[in-house]
């Protein structure tokens, strides 16, 4: 599968779908982006079950801003609508393959459990802080 262009119009639908989505935030003027592009494209051909999307940060400034992209290329890995990885830097082919393997191995039930617990933990922390301030 070739890479697809992601825009504000199709990003949410693509990223929130079931499965793995790898997103490359890039720009035409960026040398490291041009170096990473063929590696990303080659991986998209090897991993037909993964969606490989590219966000041109010059044309999609709103998306870049939404995700706090300040350095490109930035690679984001999303699985079942959950961002598991987001780091700037062009990865060598082997590192990209290792990242894909790690994303495949993630126990998404455990991730969802941890996400569900976060609001509880934040609420407990807030209550503790309020008790300490009044006590």
TrEMBL record:
Keywords noted in UniProt: Disulfide bond, Electron transport, Redox-active center, Transport
Residue ranges of every copy of the Thioredoxin domain listed in the record: 1-105
Positions of the UniProt region annotated as Disordered: 111-135
Low complexity compositional bias, start-end: 116-135
Gene Ontology cellular component annotations, sorted alphabetically: cytosol
Entries under Gene3D superfamilies matching the protein: Glutaredoxin (3.40.30.10)
Protein family membership: Belongs to the thioredoxin family.
GO molecular function: protein-disulfide reductase activity
InterPro entries reported for this sequence: Thioredoxin, Thioredoxin-like_sf, Thioredoxin_CS, Thioredoxin_domain
Name of this chain's protein: Thioredoxin
CDD domains: TRX_family
NCBIfam families: thioredoxin
């Amino acid at each position: 599968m070739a890479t697809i262009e992601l825009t504000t119009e199709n990003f949410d639908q693509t990223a929130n779908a079931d499965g793995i989505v790898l997103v490359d935030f890039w720009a035409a003027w960026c040398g490291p982006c041009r170096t990473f592009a063929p590696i990303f494209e080659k991986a998209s051909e090897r991993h037909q079950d993964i969606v490989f999307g590219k966000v041109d940060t010059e044309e999609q400034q709103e998306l870049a801003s939404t995700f706090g992209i300040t350095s490109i290329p930035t690679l984001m890995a999303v699985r079942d609508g959950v961002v598991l990885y987001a780091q700037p830097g062009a990865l060598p082919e082997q590192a990209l393959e290792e990242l894909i393997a790690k994303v495949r191995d993630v126990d998404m039930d455990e991730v969802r459990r941890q996400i569900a617990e976060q609001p509880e933990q934040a609420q407990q922390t807030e209550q503790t802080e309020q008790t300490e301030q009044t006590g």
